[in-house]
Amino acid sequence: MSDLAIIGGGVSGLAAGIYAQLSGLQSEIFEGHSVVGGQCTSWKRKGYHIDNCVHWLTGTNPNKEIYQVWEDVGVLGKDKPVVRHDFFLQVDIDNVKAHAWRDLNKIKEELLAIAPEDKKEVIALVKAIKDFQSIELPALKPKEQMGFWDNMKLLWKMRKAIPVAAKYQKLTVGEYASRFKSPIIRQLIHNYVPNTYFAISMFYMYAMFSCGNADLPLGGSDMISLRMRDKYLQLGGKISTNKKAKNIEIEGTKCKRINFEDGTSVEPEDIITATDISVAFKLIGEQYMDNHFKNCFANPDKFPVFSDVNIYYAVDIPTSDIPSMEIFNTEPFEVAGRNHQIVIVNNFADQPDYTPQGKGMLEILMVQYDYEYQYWDELYNNDRAKYKEVKMQIAQEVMKRLEKHYPQFEGKLSVLEIVTPKSFNRYLGSYKGSYMGFIQTPKVKKEIHPGVLPGLDNLILAGQWLQTPGGLPNALVTGRFAIQRLLKRKNQLDKFCCKKK
Length: 501
Ligand SMILES: Cc1cc2nc3c(=O)[nH]c(=O)nc-3n(C[C@H](O)[C@H](O)[C@H](O)COP(=O)(O)OP(=O)(O)OC[C@H]3O[C@@H](n4cnc5c(N)ncnc54)[C@H](O)[C@@H]3O)c2cc1C
Known about the structure:
Blueprint: E1 4-7, H1 11-22, E2 27-30, E3 42-45, E4 48-51, E5 57-58, H2 65-72, E6 82-83, E7 87-93, E8 96-101, H3 104-114, H4 119-132, H5 148-157, H6 161-168, H7 173-177, H8 183-190, H9 199-210, E9 214-217, H10 220-234, E10 238-240, E11 245-251, E12 254-260, E13 265-266, E14 270-273, H11 277-284, H12 291-298, E15 306-315, E16 325-335, E17 338-347, E18 360-369, H13 370-382, H14 384-405, E19 413-419, H15 421-428, E20 459-461, H16 472-489
Parallel strand pairs: 1-2, 1-14, 2-10, 7-16, 14-20
Antiparallel strand pairs: 3-4, 5-9, 6-9, 7-8, 11-12, 12-13, 15-18, 15-19, 16-17, 17-18
Helix pairs in contact: 1-10, 1-16, 3-4, 4-9, 13-14
């Protein structure tokens, strides 16, 4: 058996594996599913390529720390093209259109023309986004390994963002949006994040897009996970798929053995769990849960999670005449007992390999809060036929609205796939179907878990749940940090492959 067993082959597990191999450790990834990638995944339906993850990848700007990490794991680089949009979102409210332009002057001009009454707030919004462009996600060293000068350097880089963060730190996205009189600007601010989200995360999102640090790899989610898989294998790593861990046997302070559902077991020297966090605690036992995670699970109002219903439609003609992402308002329709009055459309026209020639594909995103997970869970467990029927009813309702908004698609849409929060839970074990980690609200500061648990000497945690609000960049860096933490524990940090960066 290898020195190191990594349970879970999502982005965090693959990153941990790559850095382990680069640092001279022999590792093996055990993935419960038939493929690696975890939530960063795609699959085929009727000749269409369903990409059920990346809408943007933070870290595409070579001047940001995180870019180096994406480069190390083989995802980004000079020869790896990204799709760069002029705007990432168009909002259409009653036929008035506003855009989240990459060019901040364009945002300012457009919003001032639409809503001169919001002039003061529009100017403050654009300034806040500009100042937030200096934000760095610390990506090279885990927090506890950063020295005085590392912290000073980071603070200096982010000096413009600090006053903005202080000014808006107490507001949710919903509260911040309500400062604007114009409904279309309110929607542009809300965009598609839950309204309980930290207002600051919206500035971050727009800032990263406008400074060229949040684009889409050509080829989407597959390009991320398959490039990581290939890099890991090239470095001599081993992947075992369909290998679902059942539990970890612990003796004293040592994790002794991983037992798998197929009846086999391994006894590695060290273990990294890179699964959903709820799965990690099922494997080791909840008695090992530390105060950090106890607090997160016990206080869903402070640490909410969210999910989506995603519907994919095949379009019988190309969709290149509509924006890559659009939100429009519509007559209400019900999903999990709550009325939705907007439709969020993601168009894949700029990913030419996703559809058969001459065809298009649309993805619809419907945010689901954690309390709505129960609805999907009960429906799936109690009445499978009804679960399917409800999904299809929603898809039909949304289809009517799409046909009204895009008359050119009338009679040309058909349902390809419907994903609910229950799907994420079934396939990946995701807690309440969440596809991010605990999200950040004004009630808590950014939470960063140290990746180790008291009483366990040879287990390190990785995965998006260690750093609010999760997502691909947080998953990635926790994989790297897991190896730095492991080596530090062994007094072998000098072996870390990329220590000079
Ligand atoms: C619809 C959607 C859209 C998204 N959009 C974006 C986006 O635009 N930008 C962005 O940054 N992020 C986005 N994300 C989030 C991103 O995909 C996740 O943050 C990231 O992939 C999480 O990686 P992870 O390694 O932490 O966890 P996971 O991907 O959950 O990986 C955990 C792995 O562990 C495996 N596993 C679970 N239990 C076991 C077990 N018992 N034994 C063995 N293996 C096990 C799972 O099968 C899985 O492969 C999106 C996600 C979804 C679903």
